[in-house]
Amino acid sequence: METGGTPPHDDGERRFLDGYDPRAFAPTAVTVDVAALTIRAGTPCVLLTRRSAPPQRGWWALPGGFVRAVDGPEGPADPDLPDAALRVLSEKTALPSELHLEQLRTYGARDRDPRMRIVSVGYLLLAPGLPEPHVGRGTDAAEWVPWSELGHGDGARSGRPLAFDHARIVADAVERARSKLEYTALATAFLPPAFTITALREVYEAVWGTRLHNANFHRKILATPGFVEDTGELADRGGSGGGRRPRLYRAGGAAVLHPPLLRGAQ
Amino acid sequence: METGGTPPHDDGERRFLDGYDPRAFAPTAVTVDVAALTIRAGTPCVLLTRRSAPPQRGWWALPGGFVRAVDGPEGPADPDLPDAALRVLSEKTALPSELHLEQLRTYGARDRDPRMRIVSVGYLLLAPGLPEPHVGRGTDAAEWVPWSELGHGDGARSGRPLAFDHARIVADAVERARSKLEYTALATAFLPPAFTITALREVYEAVWGTRLHNANFHRKILATPGFVEDTGELADRGGSGGGRRPRLYRAGGAAVLHPPLLRGAQ
DNA sequence: TTGAGAAAAACTCAACTTGAGAATAACGGG
DNA sequence: CCCGTTATTCTCAAGTTGAGTTTTTCTCAA
Q: CATH number for the domain including A238?
């Protein structure tokens, strides 16, 4: 998928680059901010940290940090933006081996940070049952916070207010997750390697905030080629209450659902 | 939709900001690159310019340029990223009053530009029948180039090779346009204010590169609430050949199509 | 051992949507 | 006025969906 690197330079190019001074340029910083979403006990949550240093000390914010442009005392340069996103997140919580990371959007309004012009690349990360976070540098708290405590993208009206424009980034992350559930097999990113159809339905219900018709959901999932594969095993049921033991499935190869599973419907 | 600006600063914040030196930071530059798509005589095209200065002099590239972080000799700062995108594009071609601009993705691999670490925010712009472009600063040619000449996102294999990772940006732009046609009313962004159902179908056929069933497309468009509105007028048919005069429609209020118009189908 | 309750999975059927093609309507030009 | 052409409407079989019911396979407690 890559474009094969940069083309070879002629002599003019080399002379030009030798005389190039990056410091002559306008000061702009690039950061990454990660909206890590997971489902804990049926409640969809996002990871937030509390800032212990200015600017906006004491406000809750997404895990984030400056992209390392070059090797330096802080550590080696980030080869690409996703590397920076995983690095800043790994300072807050242990990352599982299976995770879904995708770029969300880039935020660059002139006044979004009081220090200087800062352009921030937002990332969406989905993973099953992430553990309790730990407090990292520059923060004095880290928590999984239910989406419901953050208002519904209607600005800073309700619940816990967030630093900078992070409420907007969370709203974009939630909307992206909701809409990708419709036409991709992304829901499996919230689940462990083997899961039941009911667990899959509960992901849809938690993320969309709706109830779905049990039997029709079952039929639709099994009729969609490549969404799930039967493992041939049954879940062993430790808990209370009776009930037939459900089959276990794993994520299938398909990334895109044809036809999609629409939200409007039930 | 905005988050209400930054919160008020306490005295600690103010002291911190007074002592803050932006120049102390690692040198990273931020650019915007615009993939402007339009349909010319039934052929979907993208606007390309030829670079007349290093790096990669002589290669074709998307219109782009550095985001202006602060007011300076070059001009005032760009208030936000979309402003920068429109500014760099307006140096190449006259912009119509109605256009669709959306952010695509941000590209930040360490080696994507030989000068320094450059993070580029890609934009997708759609507009109906844009005029011939003009040659701007730093370029010696500007052309509307059919997508078909650029290969199909399979790297630099076929056709005209592009500078930096611009082949990838164009491929992302084309894929975004193709998939948004499915579930939004975006197709009308390629058309003038009043258009016929046939013209709308030809947009789908040009962008998707498929043929659609005439009568079924007609039925589906009219059955989708808010996609198009009848103007009550008929197109005046000057040209050759006979045929019933088609009705003229304008874009309706709906942004999202429920249910979507799927590509897989005919 | 057995029956009640529970959860999963399969089945039923009417209503709706889609794909494919045919029919009808409205035009321009000989 | 007849013909080719394009737009628009109609028909119908096949497929999909929404809603509810039935069957299967469990646990638990009497």
A: 1.10.10.10
Prediction pTM value: 0.91
* Residue-number span of the structural domain to which B88 is assigned: 28-179
For residue B115, the chain A residues in CB contact (below 8 A) are: 17, 20, 22
Q: Do A13 and B114 touch (CB under 8 A)?
A: yes
Could you say which of B143, B164, B179 is where a domain stops?
Answer: B179
Nucleotide closest in space to A218 (CA vs C1'): C9
Which is it for the CA torsion A82, A86, A89, A93, positive or negative?
positive
Residues 11-70 (A) near nucleic chain D, CB < 7 A: none
Alpha-carbon span A121 to A111, nearest angstrom: 16
Do residue B95 and residue B222 come from a single domain? Answer: no
Compute the distance between CA of residue A21 and CA of residue A38 in angstroms, rounded to an integer: 44
H helix and E strand count, chain B: 5, 9
- pLDDT tens profile A184-230: 999 999 999 999 999 999 999 999 999 999 999 999 999 999 999 99
Residues of chain A with pLDDT under 50: 1-9, 155, 266
- At A207 the pLDDT is 97
Whether residue B205 sits in one domain with residue B173: no
- The number of domains in chain A is 2
Within 8 A of A3 by CB-CB distance, chain B residues are: 155-156, 162, 164-168
B7 found inside a domain: no
